[in-house]
Design goal:
single chain; mainly alpha; 75% helix
């Protein structure tokens, strides 16, 4: 392709969600409520874990980082989508679009690593209970979280740098409600072989490895539970893992819907609906899953509520 046929675009247009104009107000109120619930619910989890000394354990340490990631994850995409729905400001600057893609990739990758780390923590707690305090010491927990952040930043930076070297054609319309990597690659005039190769090998590799780590941890946990003859211990182990397993199912289920289920004529609508699931619905449900199914979180919430009444 000749150079003069290529052009750099100053901004992109986000088409947003496929919603009829007369239904925009109803869906705006719905998504705004979901976003506020996500932010307040996850920040409440972080606050409870910080204030209650009984929650200063490795499991809740990882949970606090997962809650912060969920808030950041939603905040990267949802506010811009809500603004587009409210004032029909569909454009996003080139730099803003690339930045949104970077942070989206960062928090997607970080969520994967944290879910894998939490599965490993449950594996050590159930399969090696006598060595738990030795293995999951404070230094180890900090190292696991720091490593997750480091690899996630490197992953997002790699894809962002590769994308920044591409030239974009005159068509700057993105059929999505945020700047997603695959949607941007469809608009470029440059050769995307390297980008797609890295996305398939490196991007797919870390998802596969983290999922295998989760699957391997719970396979060992399941084998250990089956050898236990105490119904009480089995129920306790299932209660400990139930919340995390439900979050894993919701998160990887929506990702599989986008990347592994064959495309059809309405694949764009399917991808957008699945994206709404893992950017808004799953982060919103996480606080309810962990607080309603977790006795320690309910006790901490009750103590915080009574303190509030006392101070009032």
């Amino acid at each position: 392709m000749r150079r003069e046929n290529q052009s750099s675009v100053p901004e992109f247009l986000l088409l947003g969600l496929p919603i009829c104009p007369e239904q925009q107000g109803m869906f705006f109120a719905l998504f705004l409520g979901m976003y506020l619930t996500t932010v307040l619910g996850n920040l409440l989890i972080v606050l409870l874990i910080r204030l209650d000394s009984r929650l200063h354990t490795p499991m809740y340490f990882f949970l606090s980082h997962l809650a912060f990631t969920d808030v950041s994850f939603s905040s990267v995409t949802v506010p811009k989508m809500l603004m587009n729905m409210r004032i029909q400001h569909l454009s996003i600057p080139y730099v803003g679009c690339i930045s949104q893609m970077y942070f989206f990739s960062l928090f997607v990758c970080l969520e994967n690593f944290l879910l894998a780390v939490m599965a490993y923590d449950r594996y050590v707690a159930i399969c090696q209970p006598l060595h738990y305090t030795t293995v999951m010491r404070e230094e180890m927990c900090t190292l696991l979280v720091a490593g997750s952040w480091l690899f996630s930043c490197a992953h997002a930076l790699l894809h962002t740098l590769l994308l920044s070297h591409l030239s974009f054609c005159a068509d700057n319309t993105i059929s999505h409600f945020f700047c997603e990597l695959t949607a941007l690659l469809k608009l470029t005039c440059s050769d995307t072989f390297l980008n797609e190769l890295v996305n398939f090998t490196e991007g797919g590799g870390f998802v596969f490895l983290t999922f295998c780590a989760i699957l391997g941890s719970y396979t060992r946990i399941g084998a250990t539970i089956l050898r236990v003859r105490s119904i009480k211990r089995i129920c306790k182990a299932l209660s400990t893992c139930g919340s995390h397993l439900l979050v894993v199912f919701l998160y990887y289920g929506t990702l599989a819907t986008i990347y592994f289920i064959p495309s059809s004529n309405n694949s764009k609508v399917k991808d957008i609906i699945a994206s709404v699931m893992y950017t808004m619905v799953t982060p919103m449900l996480n606080p309810f899953i962990y607080s309603l199914r977790n006795r320690d979180m309910r006790l901490a919430l009750g103590i915080l509520y009574r303190r509030k009444i006392f101070f009032l």
